[in-house]
Amino acid sequence: MAAPAETIDQVTRYLDLAGVFACAMLGGAVSRTEKLDLFGFLVVGIVSGLGGGIIRDTLLQQGPPVALTDYAYLPTAVAGTLISFLIHLSEHAWDRLFTALDAAVIGFWAVTGAQKTLAAGLGWLPAVLLGITTAVGGGATRDVLLRRVPAVFGGNGLYATVAAVVAGTMVVCTYLGAPAIGIVAGIAFSLALRLAAVRYGWGLPNGLDWQPHTRLAAAVRGVRTTRRGRTRDTGTEDSS
Q1: pTM of the complete model
Q2: Chain-centre distance for alpha carbon 2
Q3: Are 25 and 82 in contact (CB under 8 A)?
Q4: What are 78-112's pLDDT values in tens digits?
Q5: Which of 52, 57, 49 has its CA nearest to residue 73?
Q6: What distance in Å separates the CA atoms of residue 109 and residue 234, rounded to the nearest whole number?
Q7: DSSP 62
Q8: Which of 109-148 are b and which e, b meaning 16 or more Cβ less than 10 Å from the residue's Cβ?
Q9: How far apart are alpha carbons 122 and 39 in whole angstroms?
Q10: For residue 150, what are the CA distances in angstroms to 144, 145, 159, 172, 213?
């Protein structure tokens, strides 16, 4: 028997708040690494905790973002940030001690993003995309704010990939009439895949060095090499 829509909405709300709290703590840990003051902690923690959900809700255009209408969200983000401010929790310590929580948060937010998108009447592809956005948006915004390359772009194991798998699982289960199973299975997949990625160093490939070995490609490479050599000899810039 399928769970009532109201129950699913309530469960995803609690999962969303759990993600806000955990990622606000992570934002505080990053703030400590950057040696920010209390105001910096709060700004970075709140952006980290609420950023992904605000982006999701803005794209859905279903009214103001839930972070601005549900008064539990901002205090939850502030509480998570203050814990990191009061307790010495470095970014490195977070990576070692809270990897499982981080993995669970990916599941929480990917499930929530997909469920909210489907509830808004959109299809499976927007649900997967906004599930990913919810999971990674806050962290990416936080890193841009601190002038760092967002961790989701590489060097952080499987992150967005895990979110895509979780969101896809939620979409499939919802279409089959079993969203509750989608929530449980999505979080389980998140924990299993993310922890395995961290444990075994899994990640997506970087840019490859393959070059086509055809006569045309060789001729093009030869022309480019010759032109670069002429540029160095004459000391002029190649305007092409």
Answers
A1: 0.81
A2: 29
A3: no
A4: 999 999 899 886 666 666 667 787 888 899 999 99
A5: 49
A6: 57
A7: S
A8: bbbbbbbbbbbeebebebbbbbbbbbbbbbbbbbbebbee
A9: 38
A10: 6, 10, 11, 29, 35
